[in-house]
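Re: beginner question about structure tokens

> Can someone show what the tokenized structure looks like for a real chain? I only ever see the sequence side.

Sure, here's an example I had lying around. Input first:
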Amino acid sequence: MTTPPAKRDLWLDMIRTEGGRLATMPADALDAVVPTLPDWTIERVVRHVGRVHRWVVGLLDAPTDADAAALAGAAPALGHGPACLTEYREALDELLARFEADDPDRPVATFIGPATVAFWMRRQAHETAVHRIDAADAFYAAGGPPPEPIDPVGAADGIGEWLEVFASARVGATTERIAVRATDTDTGTGTGTDGSNTAAAWSIPPGLTGDAAAEVTGSAQALLLTLWRRRPLDTVTVRGNIAVVTRLLDEVRV
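And the corresponding structure tokens:
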């Protein structure tokens, strides 16, 4: 399937924007703790995302059947302290340059098997966005400003990616259907609750039809961060069987 230019542009813009925000975290706040990840600090977030960027750059040059997990372990780590911010910016710039020059439909190795460059564009967009929120949450808890919001269209696409890449591989066969609807955007991708392709509504598990046991609604960002366990479930609105939603989040713990 050919990657729509609008999607490519969305992902590159997200990487550029969210990565830029991460790169400008204050050096004197690097030891601030991420509230939702108590073992993580801003420094650990920056070093993690930068190393993932380096891993992906390496995969772009690897055979399509390469062992992605093995190459992850070989990716160079970033330095500690303020140096991590400079090195992160370098890793981000290199990733963007490689993506901008590449064919999004070219086959490459991924952790789910051979896919395309577009898979990594999308994965890096949402990896960077969610972890940027981690760093911004830590800075806010340490007395900094509130986190800047993720673009709603990008957040909606992130929900679709969470569903397609992570939930579809982990949700048990007996899971009852959950309808998910973003209230602040009608653009993006997702499997509609009525079986159609619509931007702001999804069905979990994908393809399951019939009445939903629960419906979850909220802004695209609130939904995305709840699915990634960066926000509590009461951040969004749940109608119906909340136990089904809780079980889903437990099943797709990543």
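Each token stands for a local structural state, so reading them left to right follows the chain. The two ends are 27 Å apart (CA to CA).
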